[in-house]
Amino acid sequence: MPLIYKICPQTLWREAEAAGRFAGAAIDLTDGYIHFSTGAQVRETAARHFAGQRDLLLIAVDDATLGEALRYEPSRGGALFPHLYAALDPKAVRWVAPLSVDGDGRHVIPEDIA
């Protein structure tokens, strides 16, 4: 089952864990769904939307656990991105890892993701 990924500020995710639900970051709340990326998309997402940001987490979720609330919808030139139209239960998360930054200020995405 494929994993999908959410990049999230650490403090926001820790608050979600304590609350038992993640409603999303500000952009998610504005758009009405939680933005995720596939493994093939996560590097571009990090570069485009999180450049220069630190204290981020990479959150992995098995897409099959999200049910009908998860939809793959066109974005960025027609690519299908996973969007979750519900709050995310932190118990559904497979793993969470710090998203480090290299010497050039780019986020380091683990090689085995994409």
Radius of gyration: 13 Å
Integer count of domains: 1
Number of helices: 3
- Under CATH, the homologous superfamily reads Protein of unknown function DUF952
Distance between the termini: 14 Å
Mean pLDDT: 93
Give a short account of the largest sheet: 4 strands, antiparallel
Strand content: 25-35%
General description of the model:
- This protein is of the alpha+beta class and 114 residues long.
- The chain has one domain (3-99): Alpha-Beta Barrel (ADP-ribosylation fold).
- Helix content is 21%, strand content 32%.
- It contains 3 helices and 7 strands.
- The strands form 2 sheets. Strands 3-1-4-7 form a 4-stranded antiparallel sheet. Strands 2-6-5 form a 3-stranded antiparallel sheet.
- A hairpin with a 3-residue loop joins strand 5 and strand 6 (79-84).
- The protein is globular, with a radius of gyration of 13 Å.
- The two termini are 14 Å apart.
Short overview:
This protein is an alpha+beta fold and 114 residues long. The chain has three helices and seven strands.
Question: Keyphrases for this structure?
Answer:
114 residues; alpha+beta; ADP-ribosylation fold; 4-stranded antiparallel sheet; 3-stranded antiparallel sheet; 3 helices; 7 strands; globular
